[in-house]
Amino acid sequence: MADIIAETDRLILRTIEESDAAEQYRLLNTPAVMARLGGPKELHEIEAKHAKAIQWYATRGFSFLMLVEKDTGELVGHAGIKLVDNPLAKNQGDHEIGWLIREDRWRRGYAEEAVRAILDWAFGRVDAPQVVALTSDLNVASWKLMEKLGMVRREDLDFEDPNFPPEDRKTILYSMTKDQWENAQ
């Protein structure tokens, strides 16, 4: 049984269950949604990420979560917290937040609603001193949301990731401290 981590006006943020991989593959793994994330993944790759998230939640008390729309009960996204683990990143071990929203739910404010709940969780129960968010330089929607939330651009932490297509190799970072989050509220 999944744990409900947070609820917003329109979303339930709950832990991942093994059965979620097929649903994520079907609803969130589209070329448009995954365009700045290296492209659609194979089902076994999603299953592996879900297994890691389940293990992280069990051992660390945080992970990525499924976003369920209250009105329909449908999966509409994925968001959460992990530790920076890209071997090219200069800030290994920092708390990293991330998100993605199903294409037919874009431009409804779900990403902001979910990420605000994730930040409350990160700075509350998880007690992270700061969080970072990584994205492609071309993922304008993501970094605009980071700025809207009060995150600060950290050019000193940018890096090139050859595992992505050439246009998405520049990985940019934003950060926010617990004090910055509390002062922005």
From TrEMBL:
InterPro entries documented for this protein: Acyl_CoA_acyltransferase (IPR016181), GNAT_dom (IPR000182), N-acetyltransferase (IPR051531)
Domain N-acetyltransferase residue range list: 11-179
SUPFAM superfamilies referenced in this protein's UniProt entry, alphabetically: Acyl-CoA N-acyltransferases (Nat) (SSF55729)
A GO term for molecular function: acyltransferase activity, transferring groups other than amino-acyl groups
Assigned keywords, A-Z: Transferase
Signal peptide: none
Pfam families listed in its UniProt record: Acetyltransf_3
PANTHER family reported in the protein's UniProt record: GNAT FAMILY, PUTATIVE (AFU_ORTHOLOGUE AFUA_3G00765)-RELATED-RELATED, N-ACETYLTRANSFERASE DOMAIN-CONTAINING PROTEIN
Stated name of the protein: GNAT family N-acetyltransferase
Organism for this UniProt entry: Qipengyuania gaetbuli
